[in-house]
Amino acid sequence: MTDIVVLGAGLGGTIMAFELRDQVPPGSRITLVSKGSTYSFVPSNPWVAVGWRERKDIEVDLQAACERRGIRLLSQGAERVHPEENRVLLADGTSISYDYLVLATGPDLAFDEIPGFGPGQHSHSVCHVDHAMMTREAFERLVANPGPVVIGAVQGASCFGPAYEFAFILDKALRDARVRDRVPMTFVTSEPYIGHLGLDGVGDTKGLLESELRNHHIKWITNARVTRFDEKAVVAEEINEDGSVRATHEVPSVFTMMLPAFRGVAAVRDIEGLTNPRGFITVDKHQRNARFQNVFAVGVGVAIPPMGKTPVPVGVPKTGFMIESMVTATAHNIARLIDGKAPNAQGTWNAVCLADFGDGGIAFVAQPQIPPRNVNWSSSGKWVHAAKVGFEKYFLYKVKLGKSEPFYEKLALQALGIDKLKAIALDEA
Ligand code: FAD
Where do the FAD/NAD(P)-binding domain residues begin and end (predicted)? Predict the structure, then answer.
């Protein structure tokens, strides 16, 4: 019997387990190792933080979904991966061995890299649903006692869409509460320009987002390197092209939410040949690690080099559709290996993003990620909000049922001209 272990039951790991079930021979055992037995839809966290969603609305019982698909769920979490021994040490001290391992452990949030940063200190977060619940309490305090706000993303961040999203969602929630006139808002970002998004812009995201920020009375600071978070201010240096400090800003804030830099989780960090210095898993075009050839990786934990040099470091975002393409390629490649064939599927790694603003939004498609691109499209409008709600509902539906891809989702993506798999290697042609 072939033993396949998927580590991490987030956006990438859950559908990884389901898609493997569809692709590998029925006799193979698929084990999903999670922390707890609940799946939580991360992209809805900004809505949870302003009370537009309850926690239960965005969570799914993984045990039931896994049972339905004949997948073993181990919910104690992993302590350490031992790829030389084909073994994962679990948090309760037991170990499981594998023939193939897929790492889908997502990001570790590097709040500790800046003084005063993160939940429990002087800023809030929407990266985890627990954080979003804490942020909601702070939001309610802000409505009761309005004051200045800072939203954004710090140096080394790669996830900029949710920062813009949260700024506009917060703006709408504060308008609905009739206190927006008493909340000066500043968007502080490490991006070299508004709308860069870690992708050197997509279509006219610069123009679209600058215009939206202006229309919503949100000021901005770009090329920002935050040096500390205080109780009532964010202190950030604005960096010139040559690395010198152009200005130091002490931006008043009684409510701060900034996206942190990501790094790989402790269970995989500092494993020679498996990870880069930030703890992200290095993979080839088939999602496979070069040194440990039975180890694959999908999702935010995968190492992707930055797009180019910027005055303040920014990373490349890994969005849901890109992750799904990694998952599809990985399932296909593991199935081929079990069948005695070489891996031949590549994910597209296209960036497709819907950023919701509560009553509108912007959408973009970058195909491929690195310019010049074949598709370099962005657009805005009320339809984006509806599409984001659709994405949430479809995704939760598919996790509940243990499906990797419902028909209509596939149809919609193909109508946009975006396929999940880029190529089948020449030996297949
Ligand atoms: P995650 O979904 O974070 O899953 C990782 C899982 O691994 C977690 O469940 C974690 O508990 C588990 N894990 C970690 N360590 C261990 C361990 N040692 N043992 C067991 N389990 C472990 N993308 C979009 O396309 N659209 C959006 O609208 C969007 N919104 C976003 C909003 C926010 C606030 C953020 C942070 C990201 C957003 N993204 C969005 C980007 C991306 O799609 C998400 O971050 C997505 O959740 C990443 O999937 P993942 O599987 O890589 O990581």
Answer: 3-299
- On whether residue 1 sits in a domain, the answer given is no
Q: What is the total count of domains within the chain?
A: 1
Output the pLDDT for position 427.
Answer: 35
Whole-angstrom distance, CA of residue 329 vs CA of residue 336: 11
How far from the centroid of its chain's Cα atoms is residue 102's Cα? 17
Q: Is 42 in the pocket of ligand 1 (CB under 6 A)?
A: yes
Q: What is the pTM of this model?
A: 0.95
Distance 61 CA to ligand 1 centre (A): 17
Tell me the residue range of the domain where 180 lies.
Answer: 111-261
- Closest ligand 1 atom, residue 162 Cα: 32
Determine if ligand 1 sits within 6 Å of the CB of residue 323: yes
pLDDT (average), residues 185-203: 96
Among candidate residues 127, 159, 274, 413, the one labeled active-site is 159
Q: 249-296, pLDDT tens digit by residue? A: 999 999 999 999 999 999 999 999 999 999 999 999 999 999 999 999
**High-pLDDT (> 90) share of the chain, %:** 79
Catalytic site includes residue 66: no
Establish whether this prediction's ipTM goes over 0.90: yes
More confident residue, 350 or 173: 173
Give the integer Cα–Cα distance in Å for 218 and 243: 26
- Nearest atom of ligand 1 to the alpha carbon of 41: 47
pLDDT in tens, 101-146: 999 999 999 999 999 999 999 999 999 999 999 999 999 999 999 9
By most ligand atoms within 8 Å of CB, the mutation choice from 18, 33, 35, 42 for ligand 1 is: 42
**What is the enclosing helix (H) or strand (E) of 364?**
strand 361-367
CATH number for position 180: 3.50.50.60
Check if the beta carbon of residue 227 is closer than 8 Å to that of residue 236. Answer: yes
- For 342-399, how does the pLDDT look when each residue is reduced to its tens digit (9 = 90+)? 999 998 777 888 889 888 899 888 887 778 888 888 888 888 888 888 889 989 999 9
Given 96, 353, 355, 362, the catalytic residue: 353
Judge contact between 65 and 39, C-beta under 8 A: yes
Asked, for residue 180, whether it belongs to a domain, the answer is: yes
399 CA to middle of ligand 1, Å? 14
Kindly state if the Cβ of 35 falls inside 6 Å of ligand 1: yes
- Rounded to 10°, the helix 62-69/382-401 angle is 60
- Which of 11, 354, 418 gets mutated to test ligand 1 (max ligand atoms within 8 A of its CB)? 11
Helix 11-23 × helix 62-69 angle, to 10°: 10
Q: Is 347 a member of any domain?
A: no
- Nearest CA owner, ligand 1 atom 32: 43
Assess if residue 85 is contained within a domain.
no
